[in-house]
Write a structure and sequence with these properties.
The chain has 152 residues and is α+β, with helices and mostly antiparallel strands. The protein contains five helices and three strands, in the order αβββαααα. The chain has a three-stranded antiparallel sheet with strand order 1-2-3, with helices on one face. α1 runs parallel beside α3. The model has no long low-confidence stretch (mean pLDDT 94).
Amino acid sequence: MTKYAENTSVSSEGSRAEIERNLTRFGADSFLYGWEGTKAMVMFRYNGKQLKFTLDLPDRNSAEFTHTPARGTKRSDKVQEKAYEQAVKQKWRSLSLLIKAQLVAVEDGIKVFEEAFFGNIMLPDGQTVSEHMIPQIEEVYATGKMPPLLTM
């Protein structure tokens, strides 16, 4: 199965700029981008809510880049770097598409903002709703027990 934009010619910088342009166009009032190790992050504020998207970047030392898929022979440094950069560009294109599609869905009234971006809304402790809720959802499915209701 092919990956979306696996052969894209759009640079990672071009995709990040596109994300920023779309956020501005749809009304975001702040934008931040950064990276550390194999994680990149895009944050923005929209209607007073802070959102965070974390993008897992590939490991440049992975055999996917260092060796050929067919025979497993070691690639040259230049070929390794080119394969790695292509994978990074693909990830940024996918993130750009995701954010734009969600913004369009909100603008077109298909979803309300909080529904479209629910998992990426940041909570006061810096976690996203997804980071907070996914372990709880996994626990519910593993045990079959719902957590107790909050009491007043």
